[in-house]
Amino acid sequence: MSDNTDKHPPGPRSCPIPIAQYPHVMAAHGGGGKLMHELVRRMFVATLKSPELEAEHDGAVLPVSPGRLAFTTDSFVISPLFFPGGDIGSLAVHGTVNDLAMCGARPYVLSAGFILEEGLPMEDLWRIVCSLRDAALEAGVRVVTGDTKVVERGKGDGVFINTSGIGLIDHDLRIGPTSIRGGDVIVLSGDIGRHGIAVMAVRSGLEFERPVTSDSASVAGIVAELLAAGLEIHCMRDLTRGGLSSALVEIAHKARRAVHIEEKQIVVMPEVRGACEMLGFDPLYVANEGRFVVILPAAQAERALAIIRRHPHGRDARIIGTAVADERPIVTMTSRIGTRRMIDMLSGEQLPRIC
Amino acid sequence: MSDNTDKHPPGPRSCPIPIAQYPHVMAAHGGGGKLMHELVRRMFVATLKSPELEAEHDGAVLPVSPGRLAFTTDSFVISPLFFPGGDIGSLAVHGTVNDLAMCGARPYVLSAGFILEEGLPMEDLWRIVCSLRDAALEAGVRVVTGDTKVVERGKGDGVFINTSGIGLIDHDLRIGPTSIRGGDVIVLSGDIGRHGIAVMAVRSGLEFERPVTSDSASVAGIVAELLAAGLEIHCMRDLTRGGLSSALVEIAHKARRAVHIEEKQIVVMPEVRGACEMLGFDPLYVANEGRFVVILPAAQAERALAIIRRHPHGRDARIIGTAVADERPIVTMTSRIGTRRMIDMLSGEQLPRIC
Question: What is the pLDDT of residues B74-101, one digit of tens each?
Fold first, then answer.
């Protein structure tokens, strides 16, 4: 963790709970007494550092300007806790920050609620809290309120994290499926399938020549630039559980419009494609944690593309399709060989506990 | 559940997921596909009913006036899920609504994040969601955004719920320990220890002649009246894990003032006292979920008391002590027989998974 702490000197530089004395999380760390207060103060408050957390009140009190705000919540139960490209701590920030961004909001504050399983190595918790802090700093959002619970062994799985977030909306756009118009184009911000495959590879012991890392990242910076450019964004959606296809099917249903996409415009890393073939997955349904679609008037698509591509997480952005008015709310895809097929929502479970 | 649904005709009147087909929660209910969308739409959106939930966007977009807001989060892992006087659903609303109230805020909106264990009876989930809805309606707050995850058997415990909340602050008071002044009095809103004992009784198979029910309730209505009366509230704190004593010790530390309380002013139901003696607990340390202390100038204490006592949950309100300036930040109590002792924070774990 020295890299992280070097970047952010204010917090503790090594695990602030004495490991020799408390190598693992114990039931009493959630009991409301001295041990819990020590854990909260030394592990969470000292590391996540914000004036609101330091007040240690029942909640954070925040100033707010008139207008609209976005509010979202996500619980993270990913297994394993650590994976190539991230861990449950960074993921818990990215997931919620991205949900705020998809509402067209600038992430303002986060809450963090930890459900710890008795026996969790204290060092693992420390790594996760540091990673959560770093992801929050990078996304420009601060953790202002939190909660810690401990459950017995076998009643949890290491750690689950809930983050909820408030974002500020300082424009007048109504961003959502019902704002989509016929002729709008669909821009996808990058290659797909990396998060799901990175996690599955760890679980199944799969090895790659060039390792697949999760795409887990905040897209709030990209979205802020799209908004600042004055683009008339009609809808955005990040591609998490259920992948690109489930996101598009949901959008088509809510928008009551058909969506057509072109397979050849959808970028998939060769390693991801290979792993999908081996494991029997379709990349269209595999989870992502740093990819989104933005739907806007065709005339503005190239400008949007240029903005997204300037970002490291947006280098592979492409226009992948269009929304069509006056048709049934279905999603169709023209394949590489020119055939057309309907894309449906995932029918069962593909990758459990991917986020 | 017929009572609940009769009160609120808009939602489904019986479990909206076909029990014959899906008697239990399955992994696929969290997989991001069709089954999850059915569960979200039919169980959560249709029952909790709010325009924001119905939009099924990544987050809720809400109007807000200039000023201050309160933001808080709590994860609920109580075991058992159902207990005399409530269940995890109502508790998840009361806990978060009360945290907002303690900040002097009027509860505005809630999020609800469910972590379900595979195998949870669908009927139990339905009861819990109904109970959560009823508690939210009663507290005057609506659920505007949510999340559902499913973990494998043995990696969770039925259901964990995180609720986060936003409250609106429309006064200029700075409510918190640092606002406490020497000579302020401490008003306790009711009898203590019922929540912890009600839950422990179920766990240990203890039976009472007159059953002890949890005090779990929203205190937001009482707080709204205290604020509307123009009382100069310096600090409030609800008494959850760690009980009255832990709350007072925390306050004394943060306020850097001594707190003196009188044991004879603290109301404890005879059944609760008896159970505490039998189980070896001190009621001062037992969890509550509908009790709080309010600390304010002595001259206003009687008015506060009168307001609190008008509420069914505040009938046993008493002035229990005072804050003293220029002393060490400790809590002392004069016992029934006139001796004085120091009150410390709970040192370990007393009642695990009480909230």
Answer: 999 999 999 999 999 999 999 999 999 9
Burial of residue A326 (CB within 10 Å: 0-12, 13-18, 19+) is: exposed
What CATH number did the domain enclosing B323 receive?
A: 3.90.650.10
Let me know whether B107 and B221 are in one domain.
no
Q: Taking the model in full, what pTM does it have?
A: 0.95
B194 close to B213: Cβ distance less than 8 angstroms: yes
Q: Kindly report the average pLDDT of chain B as a whole number.
A: 93
- CATH number of the structural domain spanning residue B132: 3.30.1330.10
Domain shared by B305 and B339, yes or no: yes
* Same domain, yes or no: B154 and B275: no
Closest CA of chain A from B61, distance in Å: 4
CB contact under 8 A, B162 and A103: no
Is the same domain home to A148 and A193?
A: no
Chain-chain contact of A34 with B348 (C-beta, under 8 angstroms)? yes
Residue B14 lies in a domain: no
Q: B211 and B161: one domain?
A: no
A119 touches chain B (CB under 8 A): no
Which of B33, B59, B105 minimises the CB distance to A348? B33
Query: Which is more confidently placed, B339 or A31?
Result: B339
Amino acid at B182: G
C-beta atoms of B238 and A58 within 8 A: yes
- pLDDT, tens digit, 9 for 90 and up, residues A165-188: 999 999 999 999 999 999 999 999
Q: Do B338 and B224 belong to one domain?
A: yes
Burial of B36 (0-12, 13-18, 19+ CB in 10 A): buried
Give the domain-ending residue among B135, B169, B203: B169
CB contact under 8 A, A352 and B152: yes
Residues A119, A203: one domain? no
Q: Between B33, B56, B246, which is nearest A246 by CB?
A: B33
At which of B114, B142, B169 does a domain end?
Answer: B169
**Quick one: average pLDDT of A298-306?**
98
Q: How far is B22 from chain A (nearest CA, A)?
A: 13
List the single best residue of A58, A100, A241 to mutate versus B (max B Cβ within 10 A): A58
Measure in Å the smallest separation between the Cα of A2 and chain B Cα atoms. 30
Q: Which residue of A has its CA nearest to B108?
A: A71
Cβ of residue B346 closer than 8 Å to a chain A Cβ: yes
If asked whether residues A133 and A32 sit together in one domain, one would say: yes
Distance CA A143, CA A70 (A): 16
Question: CA A73 to CA B58: how far, in whole Å?
Answer: 9
Inter-CA distances, A104 with A71, A75, A307, A325, Å: 11, 21, 16, 24
Spatial distance between the Cα atoms of A165 and A91, rounded to a whole number of angstroms: 14
Question: What would the mean pLDDT of A248-259 be, rounded to a whole number?
Answer: 94
Average pLDDT over residues B168-185: 96
Q: Sorting pLDDT into bands at 50, 70 and 90, what band is A5?
A: very low
Please tell me if residue A245 touches chain B, with a CB cutoff of 8 Å: no
Tally of helices (H runs) and strands (E runs) in chain A: 11, 14
Q: Is residue A320 part of a domain?
A: yes
- Which of the residue ranges A225-239, A324-338, B4-18, B124-138 would you say has the lowest mean pLDDT? B4-18
Give the count of domains, chain A: 2
Query: Percent of chain A at pLDDT above 70?
Result: 96
Q: Which domain holds residue A75?
A: 27-169
Whether B193 shows a pLDDT value over 90: the answer reads yes
Q: Which among B32, B77, B162 has CB closest to A241?
A: B32
- ∠ at Cα B76 (B72, B80), nearest 5°? 160
Q: Which residues from chain A sit within 8 angstroms of residue B98, using beta carbons?
A: 58
| Beta-ladder partners of A333 | A261, A341
Q: How far is CA A32 from CA B116, B177, B276, in A?
A: 25, 18, 18
* A125-162 confidence digits (pLDDT tens): 999 999 999 999 999 999 999 999 999 999 999 999 99
Query: Does the pLDDT value for residue B54 go beyond 80?
Result: yes
Q: Is residue A291 part of a domain?
A: yes
Whether A352 maps to a domain, the answer reads no
